[in-house]
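Team,

Forwarding the record for the chain on the shared tracking sheet. I've put the sequence and predicted structure together so nobody has to dig through attachments.
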Amino acid sequence: MPDIKRLFTKLFMDQDIKQKIEFFSQVTILNGLGNFDIGKLVTDMNCRAYDAQEVIYGEQELGKALFIIMSGEVAITRKSGLLKEEKVIARLKSGDFFGEMALLEAIPRAATAKALTSCKICIIYKASFDSMIAKDPKIGIVVFKNIAVILASRLLGKSGGG
């Protein structure tokens, strides 16, 4: 019980946590989670700054985490054609996310993610997420359902998620 009490106190006393909960409650992949569940995720996230032009991850690197952009802009690129030229396949901004496949399984990344501007990005590692959903499966059910909806909309050619 002391862990829940400490988490509850941190969630409702720490202004930074409150602001993050408010921000993340608007992120599509977390739709359907209440503030307390988002708070659990927030306290388990690592947030860091990336400089403009810094590579966040490269194509073919093993996926280990989901990334949520708090500020800045990120380009998702993929090498294509005979000359293997880098092509921008998505431009993402605050509130968008990428790398969600890493929460499903550890497979190589299909693209490169690079900061276009200075960015603040929060990271949810698969190992931490798996540990959290082992204790609270409801969080996993909601997030995995959202991933399924997002992937389905992308397959159908609609924009989806981030």
